[in-house]
Specification:
single chain; alpha+beta; 2 domains; globular; His-Me_finger_sf
Length: 357
């Protein structure tokens, strides 16, 4: 699902792989909703900026250095990961901002993945870029304030394949919007962030995606979709870069980009509801960081392949049908650097970050 060649980025974008600030998550020691509250206390009280300042944030947080690599706005509703985009928007040209629009390609605006109507356009939710992305105005309008979901029979499809139609999973049959596979995990992690950052108010919000509580936050049907998307579409270089840029902009981070494992540590019951994708969480990479170029992959399940990518997105190791001894596979002789280790089985995969000092 995830195209790893996207990790080739400009040298100026290498800050995407900067490390989490030392001690940032030291207080995140619990599990379940206790961990959720600990994360809330870490990421709350960010520097609140105006709604119009989002366009300034996007100049550093949402530039395309991962697909066309042309510095234009990276719009998840327009981006075609495997080919040239139908249209592009400048991050600095105010004429590319909506405004009025009639069709796709006219302009881009600010898409609240959690609709503004849910929180009555209140601050700081209304201007928090962790859940507000630049997107094509027309597609944003078609999404409206519908929930996200899974569409089998679309009534409308955007030029990059995003779909509008009735939800096809159990528990909800209303109209939903489904982004393309490339960005499903991105959407999920933005909404998981929202659930944590605004847990002090989210219990009072009403929407099909929400269950009216401040602990689980999401409706059962939607939580299952979110956690599936989060697992099937791992954290990308684009998300890491965006997280770092927003941290520089407003001084808080998305915990589910820095620590994807937090999702199942918080919502463990939903992760265990027969969703075999989460069996991939039984894989670990250690020691991390590694100080001698050697590390170990521990897995309770057999794997089809292990792939190791360097910071430029190049596959430097491709191990088919790795043979484990006592549930452990050893990798050695890696030079110093930042790596992504991808373990796959059937159509499932999980990706771990690795540092070699």
């Amino acid at each position: 699902m995830r195209t790893f060649l996207r990790f080739a980025i400009l040298l100026t974008g290498l800050s995407a792989f900067a490390q989490i600030p030392a001690g940032y998550y030291n207080a995140a020691t619990g599990t379940g909703y206790t961990l959720k509250t600990q994360l809330y206390n870490i990421i709350k009280n960010h520097t609140v900026k105006s709604y119009n300042m989002l366009y300034t944030c996007y100049q550093t947080s949402d530039r395309d250095y991962f697909y066309e690599n042309d510095g234009t706005i990276l719009d998840i509703y327009s981006e075609k990961p495997n080919g040239p985009d139908s249209y592009t928007y400048s991050a600095t040209n105010t004429g590319d901002r909506c405004g009025n629009y009639n069709s796709e390609g006219d302009c881009f605006n600010r898409e609240h993945l959690m609709p503004q109507s849910v929180f009555n356009e209140d601050s700081p939710m209304v201007s928090d870029p962790h859940h507000i992305l630049p997107t094509d105005g027309k597609v944003n309008g078609m999404r409206s304030n519908y929930a996200f979901g899974v569409v089998n029979n679309p009534t409308w499809t955007s030029t990059n394949g995003s779909k509008l139609g009735n939800n096809s999973t159990a528990g909800y049959s209303g109209i939903v919007f489904e982004p393309i596979n490339e960005f499903k995990g991105d959407v999920a992690r933005c909404l998981l962030y929202f659930a944590v950052r605004y847990q002090n108010t989210v219990g009072g919000y009403s929407h099909a995606m929400l269950n009216g509580t401040s602990d689980q936050v999401f409706s059962n049907w939607f939580l299952n979709i979110l956690l599936t998307w989060h697992q099937q579409d791992p954290v990308s270089a684009r998300e890491i870069a965006r997280n770092n840029a927003i941290y520089a902009y407003q001084n808080n981070r998305n915990p589910f980009i820095d620590h994807p494992e937090y999702a199942c540590m918080i919502w463990s019951a939903a992760c265990a509801l027969g969703n075999e994708e989460f069996a991939m969480d039984k894989i670990s990479v250690h020691p991390n960081p590694s100080n001698d170029g050697r590390f170990y992959i521990t897995s309770e399940i057999a794997l089809d392949a292990i792939e190791i990518y360097n910071v430029n997105g190049q596959v430097i190791r491709n191990i088919e049908k790795p043979v484990f001894e006592n549930d452990t596979f050893t990798v050695s002789d890696l030079p110093s650097g930042f790596y992504l280790v991808r373990a796959s089985l059937d159509n499932k995969s999980t990706t771990k970050k690795l540092i070699v000092n």
